């Protein structure tokens, strides 16, 4: 058996918030070039101008809308339905009901439904003024598998990817807008997060001048499967078999290492003073959470 998922990861520069039609043309052209695409993904804050200043007090804040209301939401919903694709337009600038601005990844189904919203838990402080989110988010593509959402700096915190994998994510979409010199370190982190959690990781960075590019797709054994090695705009396409995740966890990475099978039921819990909690052998396995959803 196999569960193939056809990806198109758009390494593109930022776009003005009022240029939804331009975004739609880019997405439509991408689907014409790669008609087998099931999941189309764009970088962080792709529809929030090419502004790299902090969110608060910038044009990014000025473009903030409620997540499920307003012209941006209505346009993206229609676009996903018209293209018949799972659409992640990157993250957007969300105006919350509490008056705060959040850096929020959104996903629309091929029926135009808003199926997932994820507020960035780890904003890039002190440079990013977004309010932190409080929940990790996964969503299901029926008959295929489960996808986790992550935004840029989240990847620097291993708790984020670990929790998404524990929730059953088989591929993590890390949408990125990195224009700084540490993109190479982010590639290391993408490989590390994939390796230790045995998941696919798609790290989709903005093209120049918004970002440094170098988008990568990493397999559940930590191997770079495909990449766009520079900052030039482009589309990274790939077909991933999500059964590869099950196989890696069942037989071990490269036939050896099985971190999700580390504990025996009668092992003692391990205290985690940093979190005022424990690692419990009874709740460790990611497979136990495949039926749960945020």
Automatic annotation (TrEMBL):
Transmembrane segments: none annotated. It comes from the Bacteria. Signal peptide: none annotated. One of its GO terms (biological process) is putrescine biosynthetic process from arginine. GO terms for molecular function: N-carbamoylputrescine amidase activity. Keywords: Hydrolase. SUPFAM superfamilies: Carbon-nitrogen hydrolase (SSF56317). Residues 5-242 form the CN hydrolase domain. PANTHER family: FORMAMIDASE, NITRILASE C965.09-RELATED. This is Putative hydrolase. It comes from Nostocoides japonicum T1-X7.
């Amino acid at each position: 058996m196999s569960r193939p998922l056809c990806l198109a990861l758009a390494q593109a520069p930022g776009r003005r918030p009022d240029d939804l039609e331009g975004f739609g043309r880019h997405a439509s052209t991408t689907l014409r070039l790669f008609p087998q695409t099931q999941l189309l993904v764009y970088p962080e804050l792709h529809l929030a101008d090419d502004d790299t200043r902090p969110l608060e007090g910038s044009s990014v804040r000025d473009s903030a809308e409620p997540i499920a209301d307003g012209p941006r939401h209505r346009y993206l919903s229609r676009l996903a339905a018209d293209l018949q694709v799972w659409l992640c337009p990157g993250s957007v600038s969300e105006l919350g009901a509490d008056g705060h601005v959040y850096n929020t990844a959104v996903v629309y189904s091929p029926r135009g439904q808003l199926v997932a919203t994820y507020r960035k838990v780890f904003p890039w402080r002190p440079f990013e003024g977004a309010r932190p989110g409080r929940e990790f988010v996964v969503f299901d593509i029926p008959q295929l598998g489960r996808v986790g959402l992550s935004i840029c700096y989240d990847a620097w915190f291993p708790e984020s990817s670990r929790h998404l994998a524990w929730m059953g994510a088989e591929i993590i979409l890390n949408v990125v807008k990195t224009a700084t010199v540490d993109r190479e370190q982010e590639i290391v982190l993408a490989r590390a997060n994939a390796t230790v959690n045995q998941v696919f990781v798609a790290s989709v960075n903005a093209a120049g001048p918004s970002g440094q590019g170098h988008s990568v797709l990493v397999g559940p054994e930590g191997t770079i499967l495909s990449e766009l090695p520079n900052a030039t705009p482009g589309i990274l396409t790939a077909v991933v078999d999500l059964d590869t995740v099950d196989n890696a966890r069942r037989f071990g990475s490269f036939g050896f290492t099985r971190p999700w099978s580390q504990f025996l039921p009668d092992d003692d819990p391990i205290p985690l003073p940093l979190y005022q909690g424990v690692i419990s052998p009874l709740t460790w396995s990611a497979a136990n959470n495949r039926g749960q959803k945020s």
